[in-house]
Amino acid sequence: MEDAITARLKKLVSNSNEALEFRLIRDLDDLNSKEAVFKPEMTYQVFGDREIIFGYGELNVQLFYSAGCLETYLGMTYKEKVNEKCDGVEADEVLTKIATKLAPNVHYSLSNFTNSLSKDETFIPYGELKHSFSVNDQGAKRQFVVYKADMNYKGFKEYHQRVQTFLLWYIDAALFIDLDDDQWQYFNLFEKYTTPMGTTRYATVGFATVYRYYAYPQHIRPRIAQFLILPPFRRMGLGTHLLQTIYREYIGREEVKDITVESPSEVFQRLRNYVDALNCSMLPSFEPENLRQGFSDKMIIEARDHLKINKKQARIVYEILRLRATNVANPEEYQAYRIDVKKRLNIPFKRKQNEELKIERALKNVNKGTYTKENGLPSDEQRKEILQQEYEFLEEEYKMVVKRLEYAVDL
After folding, report:
1. pTM
2. Do 95 and 177 fall into the same domain?
3. Are residues 83 and 151 in the same domain?
4. Which of 325, 353, 370 is the last residue of a domain?
5. Across 137-152, average pLDDT
6. Cα angle value 211/155/129 (rounded, 5°)
7. Domain count of the chain?
8. What is the DSSP letter of 378?
9. Any idea what DSSP says for residue 256?
10. Domain end position, chosen among 310, 325, 340
């Protein structure tokens, strides 16, 4: 049995995902409203792989932001704290660990933070308005805007330093970008709302960063590096609007070769697939009768020329739209679709197999027939099983996109 001291210390271990809470403060009521609270999806980038905080009982860590310009408050409360003299161990320096990741000028006094909320009264998004739209949220009409900015706008650097801190809690292996590199462009999404007093305010919703890579000989290849919609604003279709705004910014430019994405998460890839499929469905080569004939050069050309989609992504879009056009109740039609997708999935294995055969022949010549085949490739039966699993996962992903396409509206 564990002794009383060990049992007590175990009670002073907190899950950092549960202990940390965020709020976007629009008015003083949000400081106490449970509805204003949202949680991180991960905290390992601050508190380590185990995502725990030691030394406090009933710990609550508060990271509040003013809704518009993101003035920041950091504080914590607890009922009990480990005593170094009595227990022989120290409590974790919680605020210090978080503060090193935040932008300068954090408020540690709640009263100072509440005083700073008045800055939102005059806050206007930085940059150039690129898109304005409204959504129906449970019967209420809400207005949103997307602004494109860069570091030439006075005050924008300080704003971005604050908004990028959300990446730590929602993007795996997040890194802050080099703000002095002028090839970065920034797309910021806000809710435009009216206060009870009738004044217009802007609240931060999310953002994306795009890097303009050089492409030989005189082209650029914009790459979406970061893309985040904050939790209180998800499942409203806002990510689609933000991504379409980015596309519209670059699609019409002759110097743009294609638009790519850096290490997309599953969630973002699903969004990208949906938006690209929605856009490609309006191209002649992606009409249902053409889809059933297989992936074609015409699809590659149209997706590239009209939408700046590269060949790899165009193939994925083709598979999604062909599934949509396939009568899965028809055995022959459905089988033709599955075979077509599996052929594409099997290409890396075939390539690896050919490489192994080349090595095998070369070694046989060197060793004059004494070479024994030992490679890491799965057997044909194992490969069929792996291929089926890959296909089943992919089809489920595609079905989610297809289902969403049925309810799509023009943006």
Report:
1. 0.91
2. no
3. no
4. 325
5. 95
6. 60
7. 3
8. P
9. B
10. 325
User: Residue 378's pLDDT is what?
Assistant: 77
Q: How many residues are given for the chain? A: 411
Q: What whole-number distance in Å separates Cα of residue 46 and Cα of residue 97?
A: 6
| pLDDT tens, position by position, 193-237 | 999 999 999 999 999 999 999 999 999 999 999 999 999 999 999
| Within a domain: 411 | no
184-194 and 72-77 as β-strands: parallel, antiparallel, unpaired?
unpaired
Rounded Cα distance between 174 and 165, Å, is: 10
The residues annotated as belonging to the active site are 262
Choose among 31, 33, 39, 219: nearest CA to 115. 31
Q: How far apart are the first and last CA of the chain?
A: 64
Residue range of the domain that includes 143: 128-325
Q: Are residues 176 and 315 in the same domain?
A: yes
d(CA 318, CA 296): 9
Which residue bears the tokens 């609240």?
Answer: 203
The answer on pLDDT for 279 being more than 80 is: yes
Cα–Cα distance between 68 and 84 in angstroms, integer? Answer: 41
Of the candidates 221, 211, 214, 227, the one whose C-alpha atom is nearest the C-alpha of residue 178 is: 211
Predicted confidence (pLDDT) per residue in 154-196, tens digit: 999 999 999 999 999 999 999 999 999 999 999 999 999 999 9
User: What count of other Cβ atoms lies within 10 Å of the Cβ of residue 350?
Assistant: 11
Q: Is residue 215 part of a domain?
A: yes
Helix (H, G, I), strand (E, B) or coil at 125: coil
Q: Are residues 141 and 277 in the same domain?
A: yes
Could you tell me if residue 32 is inside a domain? Answer: yes
Q: Which residue has the tokens 């007093």?
A: 197
Q: Considering only CA atoms, which of 206, 261, 210, 269 is closest in space to residue 236?
A: 206
